[in-house]
Amino acid sequence: MKRKLLAAILSCAMTVTVLAGCGQTAEAPAGEVTTLPADSSTPAADGAEAPAADASADEGEIYMFISSPEYADAINTLIEEYKNVAPNVTINYETTQNDYPTMLKAKLNSGEVPDIFSSTSGKEIDTYLEYSYDLSNDSIMTTMDPAVASSMSSTENGGKGCYGFAIKGNYFGIVYNKEMFETAGIAKFPETASELKDACDKLTAAGFKPFTTGFAEWWVFKHTYQSFVNAAADGAGISTADLVTKFEKGEAKVSDYPELYDNYFAFLDLAKEYGDAKPLETDLSAEEAAFANGEVAMVLGQGAWIESDVLSINPDIKIGFAGYPTTEDAAETKVISGSDQALHVNKDSKNLQATLNFVNWWYTSDYGKSWFTDVAGVVPPIVTDAPSEFEIIKQGAALSDEKGSGALAICYSTDSWHQTCGQILQSYIAGTISKDEACAQIEEQWAAIDGAK
């Protein structure tokens, strides 16, 4: 599917007659419609169908303001399909990425809470808990994957509730061009930091640029950094969650962990040396184009979500997928899997029932369930046996089975922190601050932003 410009703000108005079981108008109590019996409010293990319903009386507007513009075309297709189901509600869809956390907070502070908004899963579930509807008794739970549902629970509420849903599960790692590696005489994707450097030299000697980095995007850094955080935790003999907590409490320094202080910054230096001529001007769209057009061998900071766009440019490209080499221990080179994003329903929405009906239809209708694999091309966040034809998903699953997958470290922190960290690392890439200055800022801001949460 062809992407729109990454930072574009998209609006799509539509009318809706709701499908699924229930409801009448925005004033109807949430508990009266699209709900499960009290004894069946946990995620279904068999992906059972929710009962269909007629909600043709729904009307009004739904304001959907989320990040992840890489799925803009897919979501517009979803909305267009829903128009056939329910023509009396208008869905206004808006998406952006670079400034999303800041823009969302501005909306919340002004009282303009979107009917559907996004955050990371995990820690940010509690950050936005006061605004979020608990979906535990809605029919969405009949198909939601239990692992996804668990990442939407609230630690403040003792691990209970389901305060979000996901567009996708995911795989994070390095996407690479298999044919370029073969031409350069590299039989196997590198599994150690030194092997990655050797691969860059061989690719360069064969006439290929090794990397496209996407360093114009703050979120690219969190996608790369998390593999090194996992390696640092393993090196220290603690869990990733415990390591993150130490930084939040101001009890850790980057220099305490060679996987971060030495290896991660060496990785950034390597990416800068062997990557884009102007790395801080290279965004997601530029990465996809460079990779699809055969200009580079590896894409950094991305994952399963780029394959559809790449194939729309070059359907013949031979895509490979692997974890980040973080140390000299090949066992640390793992892909990362999990659901990193949560979409929240505003519990005080003026059109709550219509919003719930749309969300439940998304997860329980035949079209909605097939949308994840057939349209969005993502790892489905629902219980399904539907196979995927996407290489990143197939290879990610195989690698996870073979070596295990790393912890989804990004979910232990907020996107407010990740955005700040990305901006600090952009300054390092620009050469305006040193490594030690970057580390000091990371330590200070991590505790300041997430330490009190």
Task: Give the helix/strand layout.
Blueprint: E1 18-20, E2 52-55, E3 60-66, H1 72-85, E4 89-95, H2 100-109, E5 116-120, H3 123-127, H4 146-150, E6 170-172, E7 174-177, H5 178-183, H6 193-205, E8 209-212, H7 218-236, H8 240-248, H9 258-273, H10 284-292, E9 296-299, H11 307-313, E10 319-322, E11 336-338, E12 341-345, H12 352-364, H13 366-374, H14 391-403, H15 415-430, H16 435-450
Parallel strand pairs: 3-4, 3-5, 8-9
Antiparallel strand pairs: 1-2, 5-12, 6-11, 7-9, 7-10
Short characterization:
The protein is an alpha/beta fold and 453 residues long. The protein has helices at 72-85, 100-109, 123-127, 146-150, 178-183, 193-205, 218-236, 240-248, 258-273, 284-292, 307-313, 352-364, 366-374, 391-403, 415-430, 435-450, and strands at 18-20, 52-55, 60-66, 89-95, 116-120, 170-172, 174-177, 209-212, 296-299, 319-322, 336-338, 341-345. The longest helix has 19 residues, at 218-236.
